[in-house]
């Protein structure tokens, strides 16, 4: 019963309404054979800004158990370069991009590290790069990092959408990198923010990123993770629906080639009434050793009556020798919700679809392309930036061309 | 004039219970411009014949041949068969998520013709065919068969038949699951395609209902993997009255 105390997780004054440990299933299974105790409530997971508060990473931890931890000990345990780096951005009058000190009031307001690499980055960064959005008109900015280099480094980014503001912020990552970083996303009341993070790194790059978002009253965050390039790319978005009526849509698209490890641990915390979340991640895998991980945690606290939530993950396996992990978790602490559901499916290429297209004269290669493009384009179509959508369709085409050599 | 010849075709499938022989020596000759109806009870192998002609990988040809104007179809890939002029309107068309009808039709037309269709006439052709099949404009931007009703899927098959202009088309139970209005619309589409291109048709059906709207030149009765009887349209009328009982009693069960 060691985990029983975690049932006090959500901040609420009506403690008698809190579910009991038994309701959570936080007790040993009655068959008793394995002494197995289910994991604690998601929101009660240990957090700290100090790397020393976390034990050395072994790969057995819940957050690391599906990651190749031996390949980035420099990021979890080593010293990180936290200096400022070069970036390119498209200037806009209502979007301020500047370096701010660690003492900036926004630092630490959207979340806190739950593992050692994130804490290491947090304690190592010198200044944070702050992207501050104001103005009610729609606008789009792209921030490109192309020259991070292969020295292990830390970074901290703040993206703040002021109340009632609106923007699409695209973070483009190319070139070499070995980086552990935290991104805080603060969406003010009634703001409408889209954050797209594109991982198109060089083949050797390693990135461990945590995105922490907090969404205010009646505000919206659309968050899109697109991971195509890099050796190990782990982007974990955590979103707190903190204000009543807040809404988030989390999309992901990944395409793992031979030897690539692409991971995303998604966490949505419904912590206010009448909040809505949709999570939809889709991935394709091709080539020996292509590996993807998707973990989707949704917590509907007893502070969140009227929640409407759905999460899903779909993986399309294109060749032999790949592995896709897909783990949806749903915790519900209130009976008063509109809906909560999850779905996960990992499947091979559908031979009946292939037959249908071929029976219309379309060659096998073209038919496969159509099906994969179609599978992934559901995510691309949601991004909401026409030039980016077009460019990503092209990037998917390039990935697909890789299959045809096999 | 084109001709499709099926000679002594034997086909089996792998099942959990082992190999199961389904077609046991089918002979059939279809000339361009002819309509042949293949009728028969469930499980007689009608659909197997359709999918074998199209080249579905599930069906193994044990012996026999299928010739299109003298060329062996059985050695062709599925897409080569389509490009050679064969078309299968499927009983259960699959959904292709993320691929719009417009994109699909253009890709198929380009593959069949070996070049992209002239954009203006193509758009006009697609639009006209859709209007005639009473398909709403919005279909063009929907994903192929995704969320389509049974009748919409069948119309989408006939739309492809009209636009891809094959030499021979196999319609696999195109009438199943259609109400009378949809059946008329679909039948009109088939008749229009035949009028415009003079294609040969192999109409596979369990019921005689569709034969009121698409008049067959020949009727073949399929029982236990081979043709048990053939004749003109009058045979269909007799089946309408008598059903398949007189064929089934001649066939040992199992």
UniProtKB/TrEMBL annotation, chain A:
Biased composition (Low complexity): 1-22
UniProt-listed GO biological process terms: iron-sulfur cluster assembly
Protein name stated in the entry: Fe-S cluster assembly protein SufD
InterPro entries xrefs: Fe-S_cluster_assembly_SufBD, SUF_FeS_clus_asmbl_SufBD_core, SUF_FeS_clus_asmbl_SufBD_sf, SUF_FeS_clus_asmbl_SufD
Family per record: Belongs to the iron-sulfur cluster assembly SufBD family.
Region (Disordered) location: 1-34
Organism: Cryobacterium arcticum
Domain SUF system FeS cluster assembly SufBD core span(s) in chain numbering: 154-375
UniProtKB/TrEMBL annotation, chain B:
Family matches, as SMART domains: AAA (SM00382)
Gene Ontology MF, one: ATP binding
PANTHER family the record matches: ABC TRANSPORTER I FAMILY MEMBER 6, CHLOROPLASTIC
PROSITE patterns for this protein: ABC_TRANSPORTER_2
Designated gene of the protein: sufC
Pfam family, one: ABC_tran
Keywords: ATP-binding, Nucleotide-binding
Name by which UniProt lists this protein: Fe-S cluster assembly ATPase SufC
Family the entry assigns: Belongs to the ABC transporter superfamily. Ycf16 family.
Residues annotated as domain ABC transporter: 4-249
SUPFAM superfamilies per the UniProt record, alphabetical: P-loop containing nucleoside triphosphate hydrolases
Superkingdom of origin: Bacteria
């Amino acid at each position: 019963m060691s985990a029983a105390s975690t049932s006090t997780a959500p901040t609420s004054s009506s403690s008698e309404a809190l579910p009991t440990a038994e309701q959570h299933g936080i007790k040993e299974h009655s068959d008793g054979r394995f002494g197995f105790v289910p994991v604690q409530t998601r929101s009660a997971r240990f957090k700290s800004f100090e790397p020393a508060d976390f034990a050395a990473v072994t790969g057995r931890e819940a957050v690391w158990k599906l990651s190749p931890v031996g390949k980035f000990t420099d990021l979890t345990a080593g010293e990180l370069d936290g200096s400022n780096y070069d970036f390119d951005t498209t200037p806009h009058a209502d979007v301020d991009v500047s370096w701010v000190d660690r003492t900036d009031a926004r630092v630490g307001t959207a979340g806190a590290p739950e593992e050692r690499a994130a804490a290491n980055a947090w304690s190592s960064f010198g200044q944070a790069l702050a992207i501050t959005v104001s103005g009610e008109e729609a606008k789009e900015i792209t921030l490109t990092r192309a020259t991070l280099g292969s020295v292990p480094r830390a970074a901290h980014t703040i993206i703040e959408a002021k109340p009632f503001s609106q923007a699409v912020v695209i973070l483009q990552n190319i070139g070499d990198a070995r980086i552990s970083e935290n991104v805080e996303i603060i969406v003010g009341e009634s703001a409408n923010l889209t954050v797209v993070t594109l991982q198109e790194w060089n083949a050797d790059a390693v990135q461990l990123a945590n995105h922490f978002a907090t969404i205010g009253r009646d505000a919206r965050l659309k968050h899109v993770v697109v991971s195509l390039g890099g050796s190990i790319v782990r982007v974990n978005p955590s979103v707190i629906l903190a204000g009543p009526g807040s809404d988030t849509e989390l999309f992901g698209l990944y395409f793992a080639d031979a030897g690539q490890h692409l991971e995303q641990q998604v966490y949505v915390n419904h912590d206010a009434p009448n909040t809505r979340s949709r999570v939809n991640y889709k991935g394709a895998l091709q080539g020996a050793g292509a590996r993807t991980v998707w973990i989707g945690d949704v917590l509907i606290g007893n502070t969140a009556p009227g929640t409407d939530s759905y999460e899903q993950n779909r993986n399309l396996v294109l060749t032999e020798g790949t592995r896709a992990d897909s783990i949806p978790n749903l915790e519900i602490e209130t009976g008063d919700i509109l809906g909560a559901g999850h779905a996960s499916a990992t499947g091979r290429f559908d031979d009946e679809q292939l037959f249908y297209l071929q029976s219309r004269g379309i060659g096998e290669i073209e038919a496969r392309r159509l099906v994969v493009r179609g599978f992934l384009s559901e995510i691309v179509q949601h991004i909401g930036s026409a030039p980016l959508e077009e460019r990503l369709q092209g990037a998917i085409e390039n990935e697909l061309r890789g299959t045809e050599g096999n | 004039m084109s001709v499709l010849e099926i000679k002594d075709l034997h086909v089996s499938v792998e099942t959990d219970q082992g190999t199961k022989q389904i077609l046991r020596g089918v002979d059939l000759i279809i000339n361009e411009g002819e309509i042949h109806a293949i009728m028969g009870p469930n499980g007689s192998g009608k659909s197997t014949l359709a999918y074998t002609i199209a080249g579905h990988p599930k069906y193994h040809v044990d012996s026999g041949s299928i010739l299109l104007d003298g060329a062996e179809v059985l050695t062709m890939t599925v897409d080569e068969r389509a490009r050679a002029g064969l078309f299968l309107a499927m009983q259960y068309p699959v959904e292709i998520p993320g691929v719009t009808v417009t994109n699909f039709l253009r890709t198929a037309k380009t593959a069949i013709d070996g070049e992209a269709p002239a954009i203006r006439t193509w758009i006009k052709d697609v639009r006209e065919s859709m209007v005639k099949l009473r398909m709403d404009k919005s279909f063009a931007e929907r994903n192929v068969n995704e969320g389509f009703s049974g009748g919409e899927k069948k119309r989408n098959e006939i739309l492809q038949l009209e636009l891809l202009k094959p030499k021979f088309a196999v319609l696999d139970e195109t009438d199943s699951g259609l109400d009378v209005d949809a059946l008329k619309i679909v039948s009109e589409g088939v008749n229009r395609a035949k009028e415009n291109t003079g294609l040969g048709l192999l109409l596979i059906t369990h019921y005689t209902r569709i034969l009121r709207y698409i008049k067959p030149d020949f009727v073949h009765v399929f029982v236990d993997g081979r043709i048990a009887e053939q004749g003109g349209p009058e045979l269909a009328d007799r089946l309408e009255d008598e059903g398949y009982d007189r064929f089934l009693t001649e066939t040992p069960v199992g």
